[in-house]
Amino acid sequence: MKAAQINEYGDASVIQINEVSEPTISEGHVLVAVHAASLNPFDSTVRSGYMKEMVPLQLPVTIGGDIAGIVTAIGNDITHVAVGDKVYGQANVVAGDSGAFAEFAATASAHVAKMPASLDFNQAASLPLIGVSALQALTQHITLQAGQKIFIHGGAGNIGMIAIQVAKYIGAYIATTATGDDIEAATSLGADEVIDYKTQDFAKILEKYDAVFDTVGGDDFTRSLNILKPEGIAVSMAGRADETIAKGLNVQAISQMTQITTEMLTELSRLVEAGVITPQIGKVLPFSQIKEAFEARESGTIHGKVVVEVS
Hints:
single chain, Quinone Oxidoreductase, Chain A, domain 1, Rossmann fold, 2 domains, 7-stranded mixed β-sheet, 6-stranded parallel β-sheet
C-alpha cells in the first residue's frame, strides 16, 4: 500500500509517499481502508520534530491523525463497529496507531466510531480532532449552560468554528474574535458579538463572562482571565495561563489535551445528524499532493480544513 512517511524531520519537503506493507491489527484494534484524511496543526508539529524529545518516534513513520473510511478487519470482542462500516476518527502514531496518511490504517477501536450518515468521507475526515476538541472543552471542562456568556478566541479557526456552532446549540451568548471576511462567517455560524482583533482589544471590551475557550494561545490566554466572573473557567487549546494570576482572580484555567474516544465521536455524529454542526472544508487535494496539502494548511490562507482524498 502507499503511505505518506517521513524519514527525517523538517518542512513539507521531507514527506515521501512510499510503498509499505499493509498494517496488521492486534487485540482491540481495527483496520480501516482510508478514503480521506485531514490535516491538523499537530501533524505539522510532529513532522517538524518539535515533539521528538517528548514523543520519540522510530523513523520512517507514517504521519497524520484524522481519517474516514471503511472497516476491513476487526479484533476480537469489538461490538461498536463491524467490517463494512463507514467510520471516522484518528489513527495517529503518537497514540500508538499506524498513521492516517495511508491507504490502510490500523487504529485502536476506541479511537473510531461510525461516521455521520449524512456526510461523505471528505466531510467526515475533517471533523474528528477539531470536533472532539470543541465538545470536550464546552461540555466536559466548561459544562456550558444556556444563558451563559462564553468568549471563543479564534472564532474563524477550525476549532473555533465548531465551538461557535456547539455553543449556539447549547443556548449561550457568544463573543468571538475574527477579522475581514471572517467576521461575517463567524456571525453566520452563530456568534452574537464579533471583535475585530486587528483594530479592537477583546480584554477592553468584554467583562463578566462565564467562560473562555481559547484556540489562539500566547499572552492572550492569560489576558482573557480578566474578562471572567469570579469562579469562571477558561480552557485553552494553545496556551498555559499563569496559575498565580488565575488564583488571584478566583478563576480556573485549564490547558486541554484532546482525548479522541468513541463516545465523543458518537456525540459529534449526533450533533452533525441533528444539523447542529456543519463541516467547514477549505481545500481538497489528492493523496499524491500531500506535500502541497501541508503547504496550503501552513500558508494560513485556507478558511476551513484541508482534506486529502486517499481513495
